[in-house]
């Protein structure tokens, strides 16, 4: 099944397509005062929310949610 990504601005309510598990970590990143836009994508069925200010929130294969700076 193909899952499409979406974008939204920091401070806005994440779209319904953003998994519930990611929402607390997204809020924690935004609480750092970062601004910009989030992009939700999917890799191997797992959600990844990337903030264009240099952070990502990912759900690992084990189901853990991790917020971290981009690792290029």
Count the beta strands. 5
Q: What is the chains' assembly state?
A: single chain
Instruction: Tell me the Rg in angstroms.
Output: 11 Å
The coarse overall form would be globular
For the biggest sheet, the summary is: 5 strands, antiparallel
* Whole-number mean pLDDT: 91
Number of helices: 1
Would you identify the regions where 5 or more consecutive residues have pLDDT less than 50? none
**Strand content bin:** 35-45%
Question: Which features characterize this protein?
Answer:
single chain; five-stranded antiparallel beta sheet; 38% strand
Describe the structure.
The protein has 72 residues and is mostly beta strands. The protein has one helix at 23-30; strands at residues 6-9, 37-43, 46-51, 55-59, 65-69. Strands 1-2-3-4-5 form a five-stranded antiparallel sheet, covered by helices on one side. The chain is globular. The mean pLDDT is 91.
What is the topological layout?
Blueprint: E1 6-9, H1 23-30, E2 37-43, E3 46-51, E4 55-59, E5 65-69
Antiparallel strand pairs: 1-2, 2-3, 3-4, 4-5
């Amino acid at each position: 099944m193909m899952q499409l990504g979406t974008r939204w601005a920091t401070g806005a309510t994440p779209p319904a397509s953003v998994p519930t598990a990611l929402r607390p970590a997204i809020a924690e990143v935004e609480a750092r005062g970062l601004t910009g836009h989030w992009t939700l994508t999917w890799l191997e069925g797992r959600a990844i929310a990337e903030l264009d200010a240099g952070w990502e929130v990912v759900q690992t294969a084990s189901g853990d949610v991790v917020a971290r700076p981009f690792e290029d």
